[in-house]
Predict the structure.
Amino acid sequence: MHPVTIILVEDDPGHARLIEKNIRRAGVNNAITHFESGTAALEYLSGNGHAPLLVLLDLNLPDMSGTQILAKLKSDTTTKQIPVIVLTTTDDKTEIQKCYDLGCNVYITKPVDYEAFATAIRQLGMFLSVMKVPEPT
């Protein structure tokens, strides 16, 4: 059983540090790999079919929108199993619905209620520890 790596896609270094700090505060010690652009994150994710991953995704990125990344991840058979938590400043109901329609697991608005965030991360952690990771084919 491989430990889950958390992929953080967030272009604001301050937000990224805050999110990381709160993941640690929630008692999650998994490795965190940080990307500031959707392009870099997608390249990494599509080439990393062997490791169990969890993606924390900001919707407002410099090179593409988080919904585009989400759509790409969920439409690709190698990455569609990866759980995605959307973290964003948008609480627009249409945007939220769009993310769920595209397949995100949890949608959290920033500034994040860190208790809710910690709970979501822990629940996903438990979910990930029991989740069967498909073997690479």
Remarks:
- The radius of gyration is 14 Å.
- Helices lie at 13-25, 38-46, 66-75, 93-102, 114-130.
- Residues 131-137 have pLDDT under 50 and may be disordered.
